[in-house]
Write a structure and sequence with these properties.
Helices cover 74% and strands 3% of the residues. The protein has a two-stranded antiparallel sheet. The protein has helices at 2-32, 39-56, 65-87, 92-114, 140-162, 164-174, 176-181, 186-208, 218-233, 238-258, 263-277; strands at 130-133, 136-139. The protein has one domain. It starts with a helix and ends in an 8-residue tail after the last helix. The radius of gyration is 19 Å and the shape is globular. It has eleven helices and two strands. Helix 1 crosses helix 9 (218-233), helix 2 crosses helix 8 and helix 9 (218-233) packs across helix 10 (238-258). The chain is mostly helical and 285 residues long.
Length: 285
């Protein structure tokens, strides 16, 4: 019983972080119908930003999160205006190859500048600390990351559902041409979607940096998990991304306890079953 509770709690904690990683990916797809292969590199740059800001400016890693979010937001905006808006004029295959090329460019640019060696954050209020709850122990940095993830999901969901800006984003996602006729600047909405996607990925990276190693290739792992999460929940569904993230986290924790070498295979198996039985995902529309 205690073991099951510990695995479940750990799965929920990691799942909330996976959901945050997937949030920006599903938002970009929902607004623009574009799959961003470079999303994992946005997360990786967020991890490096948190590391560099905390190390060289002697700032607490959690305090650096607003700066990390700004870096991610600017990265998303710049990527859109310098590349993505031109790709939208071409066929879907051009968009796929374009974002794949952006992924490779960002990955190897960081590797060229900072080197391939792993980096780790050693100092911080939460780093290396744990808390005991009942009969099991949690890493405080993971608890904080889960809390921030849930808070960010609530804020983004509120913005999408309750604000004029959110309604403009939703209108652009449903019918960009009709939204343009109604006076919505769809170009700015597309750029904003990329900016928010970059910011959420950056914050996810900044949170992960507190307990996960940092390398130029770390985005490869998380983009695969994010794709499975988004497809499981339904492309374009924020609620689906959150619930699917929790499911993926639970699958990985349970499978990791018994068969750690192939735990990702169970995530992709769950995704495969959903695609076969419900192609639009759990909450897709």
């Amino acid at each position: 019983m205690a073991l099951a509770a510990e695995i479940t709690a750990s799965g929920i904690l990691m799942g909330s972080i996976f959901a945050l990683v997937a949030l920006g990916l599903t938002l970009i797809f929902g607004v623009m119908n574009v799959v961003n292969f470079a999303h994992g590199e946005f997360l990786m740059i967020g991890m490096y930003s948190a590391f560099l800001i905390s190390t060289f400016l002697s700032i607490e890693p959690l305090v650096s999160l607003p700066l990390v979010a700004v870096v991610g937001f600017l990265l998303g905006i710049i990527s859109y205006y310098l590349l993505i808006r031109y790709l939208l004029r071409g066929p879907m295959i051009a968009q796929l190859f374009g974002t794949f090329g952006l992924m490779l460019f960002l990955r190897y640019l960081v590797m060229f500048i900072l080197g391939p060696n792993p980096r780790v954050l050693y100092q911080g209020v939460l780093i290396g600390k744990s808390v005991s709850l009942s009969w099991f122990t949690f890493d405080i940095s993971k608890l904080a990351a889960a809390g921030f993830s849930i808070l960010l999901f609530v804020l983004v969901s509120w913005m999408i559902e309750r604000t004029k800006l959110g309604r403009a984003l939703r209108a652009t996602s449903i019918d960009a041409e009709a939204a343009g006729y109604m006076g919505i600047d769809t170009e700015k909405m597309n750029a904003l979607a990329w900016g928010i996607g970059g910011a959420t990925a950056g914050i996810a990276g900044g949170l992960l940096a507190n307990f996960y190693y940092i390398t130029p290739t770390v985005g490869m792992l998380f983009i695969m998990i994010a794709f499975a999460t988004v497809a499981l929940g339904g492309f374009g569904s924020i609620r689906g991304a959150f619930i699917a993230g929790l499911i993926v986290g639970l699958i990985m924790m349970v499978a990791g306890y018994y068969l750690s070498q192939i735990k990702l295979a169970f995530v992709y198996l769950a995704y495969f079953l959903v695609v076969v039985l419900r192609p639009r995902g759990l909450f897709g529309w």
